[in-house]
Amino acid sequence: MTERVCVVGAGIAGAGAAHVLDGVDVTVFEMDTVGGRMASHRRNGCVFDFGANYLELGDADLESVIEDAAGDVAVEIEPPVWQFDASGEIAEGQTPQNTRWTTKEGLDGIVRAMIENSGADLEVGVGVTHLERLTDGWLVRTDTGEREFDAVVLAVPGASASVLFETADWGAPIRADLAGALDTIPYRTMDSVALHYPFELETPFFGLVSEEGVYDVAWVSNEGHKPGHVPDGEAIVIVQFGPGWAVTHPQTSPAAAAEAATQRVVELLGDDRLTEPTWWEYQRWGDAVPTRGIDDSLFERALEDDLAIAGDWVEGIGRTRAALRSGLRAGRELL
Ligand SMILES: Cc1cc2nc3c(=O)[nH]c(=O)nc-3n(C[C@H](O)[C@H](O)[C@H](O)COP(=O)(O)OP(=O)(O)OC[C@H]3O[C@@H](n4cnc5c(N)ncnc54)[C@H](O)[C@@H]3O)c2cc1C
Question: CA 104 to CA 119: how far, in whole Å?
C-alpha cells in the first residue's frame, strides 16, 4: 500500500503529482527554487517571469486542475498575444488566444500554491542525491540525510534524472534503459533578457511571438500587462532569443546579450525611449526545452517498481501543460 510518497522536484510536474496524491503522506524535495523553469525573478519591487512566461493550458481538464489547485492566486493576463514576421512587422496573426495565467507574485506562485494547497510537506534547498530500491519501496538520500518511502515520483529535468538513474542502486534492467533513453533526448538552449525602464509602456498586446524561425528573437512580452508585476510608472520587457541565437552566439557575454535584446526591442516596437534600460538581467537556459521524449513503455515498467517519472521530457513536449499532465498521470497511476 502506498502511504508515504517522495516527490523529487517542485516544478509544475511535481506539483501536479502532489495535487492528485490526496490522502497520502507526501514529501516534496526541491534542491533549488519552487517553480523550476516556471521561474520568477524579483528586483526593486518588480516581478518578472524569466523562464516560461505564462501558463497556457488550452484543455478543460487541466484548466479545472489549476482552478482547484491554485485558483486562489492565479490571475489571467488579459491582452492578447500577437505575432511578428521576418521583417519585424507586427500583426494580430493566428496565435490561439487561450487563457494565459500567472499570479500577482509571479508565475512560480502557481506551483507554490499547488504544493501548499495539496498539504504536502515541502523541503526547499534539499537535493536528492541517490536512490536505492528496497524490497518494498525506496531509500531516498538527500543532502541532509536519508528516508524511506513507499514510492517515488521523479519530477526533475532529464539531465538530473539521468544522473540519478546512472547512480541508483536498482537491480532491475529498467534502470539502465531509462538512463540510456534520457541520454538521447535533445534539448534546446534559450536566452532570456529582462529590460527595465522608468516609464510605462503602452502596447495593445501582452506578448509578441515570432512566426516560427523567422527572427532570432522568439518572444517579447510587456510584463506591465501582468497584474501586480510592475509598479506604476515603470516597464519591464522580456526578450527570449530562440535556440538559433545560442548556436550563433555560443560565448555571448551577459552585456552583449542585453545589448542585442535592447536593439531588437527598439526595432520591433519602434520606440527610441527603449534604447536605455535602467537595469537588465540575463540568463542562459542550457536545457530549456526537450524536443523529444521517451518510449511510454518505460513509464509503465518503472511504475512496477513504485517509481513514477514525470516532467516535460516524459511527454517529449517542452511545455508547461505537458509537464503538468505528466505529473498528474504519475500521481494518479501511483494511487
Ligand atoms: C526560457 C524558457 C522558455 C519557455 N517557454 C515556454 C513557453 O512559452 N510555453 C510553455 O508551455 N513552456 C515553456 N517553457 C518550458 C516549461 O517551462 C517547462 O516545460 C516546464 O516548466 C517543465 O516543468 P517540469 O516540472 O517538468 O520541470 P522543472 O520546471 O525544471 O522542475 C524540476 C524541478 O526539479 C528540481 N530538481 C532537479 N534535480 C533535483 C534533485 N536532484 N533534487 C531535488 N530537486 C531537483 C529543479 O530545481 C526544478 O525546480 C520554457 C522554458 C524555458 C526555460
Answer: 22
- Whole-structure pTM value: 0.97
Question: Quick check: CB of 289 below 6 Å from ligand 1?
Answer: yes
In a domain, residue 234? The reply is yes
Are the CB atoms for 154 and 8 separated by under 8 Å? Answer: yes
10 CB near ligand 1 (under 6 Å): yes
On whether the CB atoms of residues 109 and 40 are closer than 8 A, the answer is: yes
250-276 mean pLDDT: 95
Q: Tell me which residue has its CA closest to atom 12 in ligand 1.
A: 319
**CA–CA distance, 68 with 110 (Å, rounded to integer):** 11
For residue 211, is it within any domain?
yes
Q: How far is the CA of 314 from the centre of ligand 1 (A)?
A: 12
Instruction: State the DSSP code for 18.
Output: H
Pocket test for ligand 1, best of 101, 156, 167, 284 (most atoms within 8 A of CB): 156
Question: Based on the domain organization, do 19 and 44 belong to the same domain?
Answer: yes
Q: What pLDDT was estimated at residue 93?
A: 78
Cα four-point dihedral sign 94, 99, 103, 104? positive
Measured in Å, residue 176 CA sits from the centre of ligand 1 at 24
As a whole number of angstroms, the distance between CA 291 and CA 289 comes to: 6
Residue nearest to atom 4 of ligand 1 (CA): 52
233 and 261 in a single domain? The answer is yes
Give 290-310 pLDDT, tens digit per residue.
999 999 999 999 999 999 999
Question: Are 11 and 61 in the same domain?
Answer: yes
Please identify, by atom number, the ligand 1 atom nearest to the C-alpha of residue 240: 1
- Which atom in ligand 1 lies closest to the alpha carbon of residue 32? 47
* Percentage of residues in the chain having pLDDT higher than 90: 91
Closest residue to atom 20 of ligand 1, CA basis = 320
* CATH code, domain carrying 316: 3.50.50.60
Q: Domain range for residue 229?
A: 188-289
Q: What is the mean pLDDT of residues 227-232?
A: 97
Quick check: is 326 in a domain? Answer: yes
Q: Tens digits of per-residue pLDDT, 286-295?
A: 999 999 999 9
